[in-house]
Each structure stands twice: as structure tokens, then as C-alpha cells.
TrEMBL record:
Substrate binds at Y109. Belongs to the tRNA pseudouridine synthase TruA family. GO terms for biological process: tRNA pseudouridine synthesis. One of its GO terms (molecular function) is tRNA pseudouridine(38-40) synthase activity. The active site is at D51 (nucleophile). It comes from Variovorax guangxiensis. This is tRNA pseudouridine synthase A. Homodimer. It catalyses: uridine(38/39/40) in tRNA = pseudouridine(38/39/40) in tRNA.
Length: 270
């Protein structure tokens, strides 16, 4: 049978999602837990690889197994063998033609940023930080120039293995929570797919506009340049969360993973 799992994790302690010889990845921990639970080797595929320090609110994986368990048993049994900062949120049997990556219709991320004259402490590693006040209207004007189907080479890491730099960036929503010099910003991104480091590179450039170092129109110049050198440096991974992929309702996955159900609200750190 083929099974899909929804996974949530804090990425601070890990070298990203993808398995590495060090064993310090989310995939390594998940597969070890599944192997212990089923007493058979389990290999997983994920909807979107996350880098070191990046978190996930709903990573989706699938795998094939001969083990038979009830969905709640997959969740509870696997969580028994996982570290405290990784947890299976749901389990659902799916048809053999379901593929967590290829079947996804969209992917979503949120970047959580603390604007404060003092660096984060209790939430260190879970939020990005700007000591400078940010202009929300300027950042939204810049973000509007990024929405649509574009060549995002200027925001692509040199190690990116994507076949094409052209992506359909469908939505960017920028929300401020709180007033004064201390507040939170949420930057939500939705696209058909993302390039390696794309969001962190977009964040670096949006914040350059927000600080007043560049005008919003500068973003169009960066986009047109199709050169990584034209954009701002890659921003910190600390506040980046994979909100998860969205699928057609025909797969029967939970509402938060289906496109027709709408967008699940961000429910990360306060």
C-alpha cells in the first residue's frame, strides 16, 4: 500500500530534510522511526526539500509498505520513535498513482520576521530579525511586481538543480502584527514550485526595499537582470516555514492539504 503522511518539524537541530551521511536530517529521523515501527526498511519521498534550519508546518511525504496499520496507529506509533521536535500530524492511504511531489498543484511558505531593536532570544532560530523599521506599503508594491510567471534566475541559488528558472509565483501577502518599533511581519508565498533558496533571496531583496535602501521599482530591474548578482544577499533561514503543498481534493487528504479547501491560516510561533 502507499501511504501519505503530514509532518511538522522544527528544523533548528537538523541539516535540512534530505538524507545525509551524518544522519542529522529530518528524513533520516523519520525513516528510522518508520523502520522501527514497521520492522521493515522504509524510504520516503517528500513534497519539498527544506534546508538546514528551515521548519515545516505541513511537510507531506509518501512511501510504499506491506505493513498494515490503522491511520491513527501510523501517527501515534511513528511519533513514539521520533524526536520531540518532529511529529506526524496525520496519515492517509493513497492510490499508487499519488506522488507527494508530482501531484502537488501548489506549494506555500511563510517567513516570520521580528522587527525589534533587540535580537530575538526566546524565539531565536524560529524567527528572522530586522533591527530597522520596515515600510509595509513599499514592500507590498515590490512584491506585486514579482507575482506572475517569471524567470527567477536572479533569486536562484547557484546549486539549484531545477530544470527551469521559470516559476508561477501566484501570491505574496505581507502582514504586520503589532505597532511601534517592535512588531512581527508575516510574508506568505504561494507558487507552483520554488527554486533553491528562492524565498530567502526574495526576502533579502524585499527587506532592502522595506528599509528604504531601494525603491519598489528596483525589484523589476533585479528580475529582468536574470543574474543572482543583481539581487540582495540570501536572508537567514531562521524564520522560514514550509506551510505545505496543496493537492486536488480527489486524493482525499485532510482539508489543509487540498487546494479547493482554501488556504490554511498560518499557525506558527506567536
Amino acid at each position: 500500500m502507499r501511504l501519505a503522511l503530514g509532518i511538522r518539524y522544527n528544523g533548528q537541530a537538523y541539516d535540512g530534510w534530505q538524507s545525509q551521511p551524518s544522519g542529522r536530517t529530518v528524513q533520516d529521523k523519520l525513516e528510522a522511526a518508520l523502520t522501527k515501527f514497521t520492522a521493515q526498511p522504509i524510504r520516503t519521498l517528500c513534497a519539498g526539500r527544506t534546508d538546514a534550519g528551515v521548519h515545516a508546518l505541513m511537510q507531506v511525504v509518501h512511501f510504499d509498505t506491506t505493513a498494515r496499520r490503522e491511520p491513527f496507529s501510523w501517527m501515534r506509533g511513528t511519533n513514539r520513535f521520533l524526536p520531540d521536535d518532529i511529529a506526524v500530524q496525520w496519515a492517509h492511504p493513497v492510490p499508487d498513482e499519488f506522488h507527494c511531489r508530482a501531484s502537488a498543484l501548489a506549494r506555500r511558505y511563510v517567513y516570520v520576521l521580528s522587527q525589534s531593536p533587540v535580537r530575538p532570544s526566546l524565539d531565536s532560530g524560529r524567527v528572522g530579525w530586522s533591527m530597522h523599521p520596515l515600510d509595509g506599503d513599499a514592500m507590498r508594491a515590490a512584491a506585486a511586481l514579482l507575482v506572475g510567471q517569471h524567470d527567477f534566475s536572479s533569486f536562484r541559488a547557484s546549486a539549484c538543480q531545477a530544470r527551469s528558472p521559470v516559476k508561477d509565483l501566484r501570491r505574496i501577502e505581507i502582514t504586520r502584527i503589532g505597532n511601534g518599533e517592535r512588531c512581527r511581519w508575516h510574508f506568505e508565498f504561494e507558487a507552483d514550485a520554488f527554486l533553491h533558496h528562492m524565498i530567502r533571496n526574495l526576502m533579502g531583496s524585499l527587506l532592502r526595499v522595506g528599509r528604504g535602501d531601494e525603491r519598489p521599482e528596483w525589484i523589476s530591474q533585479v528580475l529582468a537582470a536574470r543574474s543572482r548578482d543583481a539581487a540582495a544577499p540570501t536572508f537567514s533561514a531562521d524564520g522560514l516555514y514550509f506551510m505545505g503543498p496543496l493537492y486536488d481534493a480527489k486524493w482525499g487528504l485532510p482539508d489543509e492539504a487540498t487546494l479547493q479547501a482554501g488556504r490554511a491560516p498560518y499557525d506558527g510561533p506567536p
